[in-house]
Amino acid sequence: MGDQFRELAQDPISFLAYCVLRRALKGWSRSPHYREDGFIILVVPPGHRAHVYKSAMHLLLDIEREEWGQQYGKIRLASPLKKKGSADKQVSVFDLKGLRVLIANHIGEVPKDIRFAAQRIVDVETPQARHINAARRVAGRSPISNEHAAALAGRPQNVIVAAIFKKTISGKEVAELNDLDRPDVAGPCLFELPGYHDVKPWVHELRRDVEQWRRGSLAWKELSRGVILSGPPGTGKTLFAGAFATSLGFRLIATTVGAWQSAGHLNDTLNAMRKSFDDANDGQGAVLFIDEFDSVGTRPARPSGHHNDQYWQIVINEFLSLLNNLGEGVVVVGATNNPEWIDPAILRAGRIENHFTLTLPDASTRAEILRYHTDGKLSFEALTEIAGELDGKSAASLEELVRYARQDARGAYRELEVRDLRARLPKKRPYTLEQQFRLGVHEAGHALVSLALGYASSATIEIKDSFDPTATSFPGGQTSYDLVDDYLPTEATLLNRIAVALAGMAAEAAMFEHRSIGSGGVVGSDVERATAIARRLVASYGLGKSP
Question: Which of 67, 257, 304, 437 has the most crowded Cβ, counting Cβ within 10 A?
């Protein structure tokens, strides 16, 4: 033990862990019965590394380090470091032989059956001021004031270690600690970007709360810690994640459910999922962005006997466990085109409880996006006019248009000008008079039925005279409503909404020999809206003919 302690005394990081463990396990390690008491689980503080505590634990219990593989070692890590050639593996209830102490970064790393088998679960507290000064003496540094040491005590391990090795620490340097544990972030802040009008107020409130959490005046459990973004491709879900992380001063950790599943079989998928959460779970602040979020799957309402049922049951249960055991400083952002496919348990309060729908930008937002990508150097009036020619274009498409326009300007050896953007506008084709008449009839059907049924107090019809043949859909007409308030929808008012959605097609049927495809085919179409209402009316609200 003497040699081990001399070795520890030369390593202030392990020495600090030794001090904290000795305080956490006071009395237990000296008990003559602790060897027969089974094993305990130690959960290290957020932002601290479990393997550092493992070295200190060998000394505390006077146990020699296992040299030849540690599958049956007395002191183990719940999630061992992945090293080539290492015999360490994820702990299992079938491998508890000889175990005395299991060390975890967070309790979610430990399977439930192992938690049940443990004699005690101990949450290790962060170092105290006296521990930090003792570690400074080990490092050959002079002690600092108790006030400065106390300011360090609750910080992540990397910040404490940096302070241990620093020769002197002044009040000014203690004030810099607020920035020391913030990661370097790149890219625009969300509030510099155009659009995102619905989600920005939520981000503003969360940023305010994160600042209070950093100062220690607000508990992390009080914060809103998860959000789902849904919407068609190109609406800026991925761009949001990076700008959101920058706004909070957090790291961005981006992954996809497809990347988890491509790792291999079920165990490989679960390990890939755990790694993404572990990467974020360091206590320093991270946004975990998960794309293709609906691909996590949903559990069957009742057993079908299909082997896939058990697969998704295991995946979702593990995902829920990881969400429940997230450490401090982690915000989860999920992106999906199909929010209705997400298991309801994931979206309940306390998990991912916020949901924002991103839509294609309207004309004014398109102008703002163009101004952003042109660095504000072109006339906003001219950009507004150009934006009016880009109906239905996504934010990604607008960025692409500016990029190609800049390329044209560089080819002419000059700065970007409005004419370069105009030259890149899609070549439109005019609607014939017959087609415009059909569009007018279609929109008049929506307007007339909405007024007749009391769905709206007024309706405004807009008909386009041309269309972009390269677009995925041609929005030739649009009806805008001043809706009548309906805070407690009934079966009748829901059926009225369906009638308004299908009234355009009905008007075409009344006026023409054949109907057009203008009511369906794309997300947000008349048929899709009517179907969504009908599905909820029967399957969610229970207003079908039989419950």
Answer: 257
Distance CA 26, CA 48 (A): 20
User: Do 356 and 227 touch, CB atoms closer than 8 A?
Assistant: yes
Q: Are 543 and 533 in contact (CB under 8 A)?
A: no
- Crossing angle of helices 2-9/50-60, nearest 10°? 140
> What is the separation of C-alpha 369 from the centre of its chain, rounded to a whole number of angstroms?
24
* 3-state SS assignment for residue 185: coil
The residue type at 368: E
SS3 253: strand
Question: Do 401 and 258 belong to one domain?
Answer: no
Give the C-alpha separation, 145 to 151, whole Å.
10
For the chain, percent of residues with pLDDT exceeding 70: 86
Please check whether residues 221 and 258 belong to one and the same domain: yes
**Coil, helix or strand at residue 198:** coil
Rounded-to-integer distance, Cα 359 and Cα 147, Å: 51
Three-class SS state of 461 = strand
Residue 195 sits in the same domain as residue 233: yes
Last residue of a domain, one of 357, 380, 405: 357
Q: Does residue 546 form part of some domain? A: no
Residue 444's DSSP bridge partners are none
Phi, psi of 298 (to 5 degrees): -140, 145
Q: Which tokens sit at 473? A: 């859909």
The distance of Cα 303 from the centroid of its chain, to the nearest Å, equals 30
| 18 token code pair | 């030794």
pLDDT per position as a tens digit, 276-314:
888 887 777 899 999 988 888 766 655 555 556 677 788
Classify residue 297 as left (phi > 0), alpha (psi -120 to 50) or beta: left
pTM: predicted TM-score of the whole model, two decimal places: 0.63
Higher local confidence (pLDDT), 466 or 216: 466
The total number of structural domains that make up the chain: 5
- Final residue belonging to a domain, choices 373, 408, 425: 425
**Is residue 69's pLDDT more than 50?**
no
Domain that holds residue 137: 129-180
CATH label of the domain that carries residue 386: 1.10.8
The 8-class DSSP code of residue 355 comes to E
pLDDT in tens, 336-365: 888 878 888 888 877 888 999 988 888 899
What is the C-alpha to C-alpha distance for residues 68 and 85, in angstroms, rounded to an integer? 11
